[in-house]
Each structure stands twice: as structure tokens, then as C-alpha cells.
Specification:
37% of the residues lie in helices and 15% in strands. By secondary structure, it is α/β, with parallel strands linked by helices.
Length: 385
């Protein structure tokens, strides 16, 4: 499918067909798993299709990367061994010692650890801004700021950032606007079209969608930046393997229909929690009372499958809800077809303890799956007691 043809097709069609042409040799309608490390050359320097070594490029990964680019409306997609590998490659491509990054006050704990424990030792400075308030971001930008890093919706407090407003600030100041779009997926939100420079994913989550693969991705519309990222992807080597690439592609084919169900189920659950006497606060951008609801409604197709809430009786009560749930599986990660429950303060966000990104101790995070919503509601009713 050519770039010209892609402009004529809707998201759900691209998810199944972009980068997924039938195998020219056999007609296989699914991209084969090229489980190979090296490729025969036709004479010294004569590469068939540009392939020489699977770290540099592999046909299965190429198919995924073309698909990723098409889904986000970008010109370059790159697939990595994990979301953090994608983030690390991006940050070491666009920053150097002495540079500064604006980071969000609500973000995945592993991303914060990368900033605070790894990049700091490399001489890259960071400071925290409320990324849900554009003026807070503008005030945090310094002359040496190279990146404004944003999650929307954010993990785990479901904050919403106005991507277009932040894009104006980034372009005014010369910083790159990076959007971690993991919670929304490209089906629900298109950051590049709203002015972002780079989109980041943990493809482990909604893109893979089945809790069976770990992966990450970067997408950009900037050809020069895309080439620089590809150079560093090869030079640093944290690439997605062929089978992992194939699993992510397999997941992406059903991304649209899954996100519709995730969003519908999460909406019902957020409404149930809002009315529950044991629940002090619910974080879900689909609720009209959510402070980012209007922006989310403007820049998202639907509101996603992630819901967080605070327990009225404190930390131990929140932990007990996690332990009592049965259909909601106690576990880290998110975005799979099965529902998960976790305690961010003790689990996914433990690395943010004592920092400006520390999460409330009475917080519970739900990854709402695609099961029967009535069964999920009954499970939460039991778990809350």
C-alpha cells in the first residue's frame, strides 16, 4: 500500500493493510516471521531488499514499522524491544550533556526513573511542570530545553494535556514535543496531527493487546529526525525481534474494535465507581466532571480503558480491594483483553516515591478489559465490600 493510497483509507483499514502486503513469493496474506539473524548478499555490498543483518533491519520488523507510521500519520515508524528502549533511544538521540527536559508531574514510574536515575548521571537536567496547564509548561522551559515530554492521558491520574496548545509552546521555544500516546493508542488520538514532533508507545499495552509481548515504538513525521532515530536504533541495538514484531502486528489488526469495547466498559465502570460510597474520587476523562474532559472530547475519539480511583478509607483499604478482586487480575501492565487491577504506589510507580511524581497511597488503577461489563461490575462490587 503506497503512501498515496494510505490517504484514502480509514484507520481500521490501515491497521489491517498498511505495510502488510501479501508475501510476493508465496502469496501469504500474513507477513512471515523472518526469524533470521543474517542475509545472503549478492556479491560484496549487494543487499537484497536492503537487508544484511536483523539488528539493522528485518522484513517482519519493517512491516510493523510501516504500519506504525501509517496509523499515526507519520513518515517514519521505529519498533523497539520495549517502551523504555524506545524512550532511551529517542532521548539519547536528541539530547546531550548540559541539555534540559521538561517532564510531567504525572507519568509512568519507569519513565521517571529513566529521567531521574539514568539521564541525570549523563548530565541531562530535568524539571517538573504541570503538563495539564500550558502556562506551567511555558514557565518551565529554559534556553537549553530540548524536549517537552507529555503523557495524555497520564499514568495513573488520567490527566489530559492540550496537545495543540503545547505544540505552540514547543514550536515557539524550539523544543521537541514528545507525546507518550500509550494510554490512548493511535486509534483514539493522533498527536502528530495536533502538532507533536514524536509519538512514543509501549506497544506491550493496547497495540499488542493480549499481554503476550513486550515492545516499544517511535513515530515522527520529520524525515530528518526519523533518519537520526533510525541511525541510533541500529547503533544502540534495542530493536524489536521478528516474533515480537509479528505479535504486535497481529494485535494492531483488531485495535479499533478492542478500543471501542475498552472505552465502553471503562465508561460504565467509572460511572459505577462515581456513585460508590467507598470511593472518594474517580479519575476518568470520560466523566463530565473530569477537569480535562472538554479537551479530551476534542482531541480523542473516545476515552480509553484506564480508570483510577481513590479509596475513602485509605491505603490499606485500597490494597485490600486489589487483593479481593477475582476477575480483575492483580498485576502490573495494562491494555490487554483481560482486566487488571493494581496499587500504583506499591507497584508500577514505586520508583516515583518521594518525588514530585509520587502517587496517592490510596489509589487503585484499573485496566478495564473487554469481558462482559456486568461481570466486571459485579467483581468490583464484591472487592469494594
Amino acid at each position: 500500500m503506497s503512501e498515496h493510497e494510505q490517504h484514502h483509507y480509514a484507520f481500521e483499514t490501515l491497521a489491517i493493510h498498511a505495510g502488510q502486503e501479501a508475501d510476493p513469493q508465496t502469496g501469504a496474506v500474513v507477513t512471515p516471521i523472518y526469524q533470521v539473524s543474517t542475509f545472503k548478499q549478492d556479491g560484496v555490498g549487494g543487499l537484497r531488499g536492503g537487508y544484511e543483518y536483523s539488528r539493522s533491519a528485518n522484513p517482519t520488523r519493517t512491516a510493523l514499522e510501516e504500519n506504525l507510521a501509517a496509523l499515526d500519520g507519520g513518515r517514519r515508524g521505529l519498533a523497539f524491544a520495549s517502551g523504555l528502549a524506545a524512550e532511551d533511544t529517542l532521548l539519547r538521540t536528541v539530547t546531550k550533556p548540559g541539555d534540559h527536559i521538561v517532564i510531567p508531574n504525572d507519568a509512568y514510574g519507569g519513565t521517571f526513573r529513566l529521567f531521574s536515575k539514568v539521564l541525570t548521571r549523563w548530565g541531562v537536567e530535568w524539571s517538573v511542570a504541570n503538563t495539564h496547564d500550558p502556562e506551567s509548561v511555558r514557565a518551565a522551559v529554559r534556553p537549553n530545553t530540548k524536549v517537552i515530554w507529555v503523557e495524555t492521558p497520564s499514568n495513573p491520574l488520567m490527566g489530559i494535556a492540550d496537545i495543540s496548545a503545547l505544540a505552540h509552546i514547543s514550536h515557539d521555544t524550539g523544543a521537541l514535543l514528545v507525546i507518550d500516546n500509550t494510554f490512548a493508542s493511535p486509534y483514539l488520538q493522533q498527536p502528530l496531527a495536533l502538532g507533536a514532533d514524536v509519538v512514543v508507545y509501549s506497544t506491550t499495552k493496547y497495540m499488542g493487546g493480549h499481554s503476550d509481548v513486550v515492545g516499544g515504538a517511535l513515530v515522527t513525521d520529520d524525515v530528518t529526525l526519523g533518519e537520526e532515530l533510525a541511525y541510533h536504533q541500529n547503533a544502540m541495538g534495542a530493536v524489536a525481534g521478528p516474533f515480537d514484531s509479528w505479535l504486535v502486528m497481529r494485535g494492531i489488526k483488531t485495535l479499533g474494535v478492542r478500543m471501542d469495547r475498552h472505552s465502553a466498559n471503562a465508561t460504565r465502570i467509572a460511572e459505577f465507581l462515581t456513585g460508590h460510597p467507598k470511593v472518594a474520587q474517580v479519575y476518568y476523562p470520560g466523566l463530565p466532571e473530569h477537569p480535562g474532559h472538554e479537551i479530551a472530547a476534542k482531541q480523542m475519539r473516545a476515552f480509553g480503558g484506564m480508570v483510577s480511583f481513590r479509596h475513602r478509607d485509605g491505603e490499606e483499604a485500597a490494597i485490600q480491594v486489589c487483593n479481593r478482586a477475582e476477575l480483575f487480575t492483580l498485576g502490573e501492565s495494562l491494555g490487554g483483553v483481560e482486566s487488571l487491577i493494581e496499587h500504583p504506589g506499591r507497584m508500577t510507580h514505586a520508583s516515583a516515591a518521594g518525588s514530585p511524581l509520587e502517587v496517592p497511597s490510596d489509589l487503585v488503577r484499573l485496566s478495564v478489559g473487554i469481558e462482559s461489563v456486568d461481570d466486571l461490575l459485579a467483581d468490583l462490587q464484591r472487592a469494594l465490600g
